[in-house]
Specification:
Transcription Regulator spoIIAA, mainly alpha, 61% helix, elongated, six-stranded mixed β-sheet
Length: 542
């Protein structure tokens, strides 16, 4: 097993072959993603080189390929379209560059604040539903390129389909045939791993380019790689809110997708991961890409998987891929310019088609968990657009989380088989202590549920006769906020007024420290001493 932090150039031959493969694969994809974002092809290529170089020098994962991604391209396209409509005096490319720099700064800020767990704000069902809907939006958006139709604009699937339907009569048979053949070969390559599908369709497309061009099929065209050092433009007053919204969406999409790819391959190979270091590397890569007028960059799953499959052994593969990409663009720009647009559209559709596997959703149906969340994520992206759909799905996941946490659930515990264990009294052989009531909140105590939980605790206390003591097990509460502390003090005072004593058990360090600092007169230090429920009950009964 190779350690992730070993010298980059220890496996030059393996990394060289992987780098050459990734360069040949990612250049057409970068050009295609630039088309999705409605930016010049150079924006995708600059992002490819900037992302691989910056991450190769700074990042942690030895397999991650950081370049433009289909998801960020769609989010950028939707966001810049909205910003251009607000301020028509600034070009879309300039606004895109500003937003990429802004996204990089937000990622650097998150790294500085050590928010490596940022991606956990997006639940996995949201990510999978988002990926499914996003793949649909991307594929629909590529249909005009696949069929030789004029480019259509729209944020949602219904609008795109409606506009494409009105142009269907303008389909160019040669373009459609080229796109369908390329897509079929790519799908065949997925079933036959030894068939180099991407290389095959690109070579065939370049070979047939003169014949296709004569029949009206559009080609990629020349790529101008001269870096643009134009400083980013500051958002106007009307642009601040949509700029913040777009930047936050790009950060969530890029880091969630990147961290998922990085973590997956690190676990597969037993490599260590450093979330904050990767955040910093992605931030630097996006700032550099934005300053050069490139696209946002992240570690896409398909590119990272291709790098692993090509035999990469260290981060040197990404650096060699960047060098190979520059060399290919410098020595053979004419060949790249001859790639037919339907071939690029087929490559994009094929690259996102893995998100359409229904097996991804089977666990949610089987477990009967988060089915609504997945469905809303899919429909929101398709019906509201990528940017607003993602935000709606994230908001719903947070609302459902708060609803679960705020729902008061309080268990009454009993001694199991006369031993040391205490379990809910609904289980067989669980017997309540004679003069002691043992209560356990089933959710962490915090401002949204503390009042409701202690209301239930008063009800359970009132239901018991001959009661002298109450034990409250706080094993589910890693910490206590001020509302929970006040509610707990009020409950202790209420018990004291009825001649009942209160003991706390299974306190976590955060909760114990909070209670110690609060120094509540209703809860002296002796009430906080017991480590287990059994210890607390025995101390009260002795």
């Amino acid at each position: 097993m190779i350690a992730a932090d070993e010298p980059r150039w220890r496996h030059p031959v393996a990394d060289l072959f992987a780098g050459l493969s990734i360069a040949g694969l990612q250049i057409p994809a970068a050009v295609a993603y630039a088309g999705i974002a409605e930016l010049p092809a150079s924006a995708g290529v600059i992002a490819l080189v900037a992302g691989m170089v910056c991450y190769g020098l700074i990042g942690r994962s030895r397999f991650a390929i950081v370049s433009s991604t289909s998801s960020s391209a769609v989010v950028l396209a939707a966001g810049t379209l909205a910003l251009v409509s607000v301020d028509g005096h600034v070009s879309r490319a300039a606004i895109a560059a500003t937003m990429v720099v802004f996204t990089g700064i937000l990622l650097l800020l998150a790294a500085g604040l050590r928010l490596g767990g940022l991606s956990q704000l997006v639940a996995r069902p949201v990510l999978r539903g988002f990926a499914f809907g996003l793949a649909g939006i991307i594929a629909i958006g590529q249909l005009p390129h696949l069929a030789g139709l004029p480019v259509v604009h729209g944020d949602t699937a219904p609008i795109l389909l409606w506009r494409i339907a009105h142009l269907i009569a303008a389909t160019r048979p040669a373009a459609l045939a080229c796109g369908l053949v390329a897509l079929a070969l790519l799908m065949l390559g997925r079933r036959l791993p030894r068939l180099p599908g991407y290389l095959l369709v690109i070579v065939l497309g370049i070979t047939a380019a003169p014949w296709l061009a004569a029949r009206g099929v559009a080609l990629t065209g020349a790529i101008e790689l001269a870096p643009q050092w134009t400083p980013p433009s500051w958002p106007s007053d009307e642009q601040w809110l949509p700029s913040i919204e777009l930047g936050a969406a790009l950060v969530l999409v890029l880091y969630a997708e990147s961290w998922g790819s990085i973590r997956t391959f690190a676990l597969r190979h037993g490599d260590a991961v450093q979330a904050n270091r990767d955040l910093f590397a992605l931030g630097i890569a996006n700032v550099v890409s934005g300053l050069l007028h490139g696209m946002p960059v992240g570690a896409g799953y398909s590119a990272t998987a291709a790098n692993e499959a090509a035999g990469a052994r260290s981060r040197g593969a990404g650096l060699l891929a960047a060098a190979a990409a520059v060399a290919m663009l410098a020595t053979a720009p004419g060949w790249i310019a001859r790639i037919p647009e339907p071939v690029l559209a087929a490559i994009v559709i094929h690259s996102v088609s893995h998100a359409w596997r229904w097996s991804v959703f089977r666990p949610y149906l089987q477990w009967r968990r988060d089915r609504l969340l997945v469905l809303v994520a899919v429909l929101a992206v398709l019906g509201l657009g990528v940017l607003h759909g993602l935000l709606v799905a994230i908001a719903l996941s947070l609302i459902l989380l708060l609803r679960q946490l705020a729902t008061p659930r309080l268990s009454v515990l009993g001694r199991l088989h006369g031993g040391h264990d205490f379990v809910p009294i609904g289980r067989p052989q669980a017997v309540e202590p004679a003069a002691t009531l043992v209560l356990r909140p089933e959710e962490p105590l915090f401002f949204a549920n503390a009042e409701a939980i202690f209301t239930l605790a008063r009800e359970r206390t009132g239901e018991r006769t001959g009661l002298r003591h109450v034990v409250l097990s706080l094993e589910e509460s890693p910490d206590l906020d001020s509302t929970a502390l006040e509610a707990l003090a009020e409950f202790a005072s209420w018990l004291d007024g009825r001649g009942l004593s209160l003991r706390l058990a299974r306190l976590k360090d955060g909760s114990r420290e909070a209670l110690t600092r609060a120094a509540l007169p209703q809860l002296p230090a002796a009430a906080l001493d017991e480590c287990s429920v059994d210890d607390a009950v025995r101390a009260l009964e002795s």
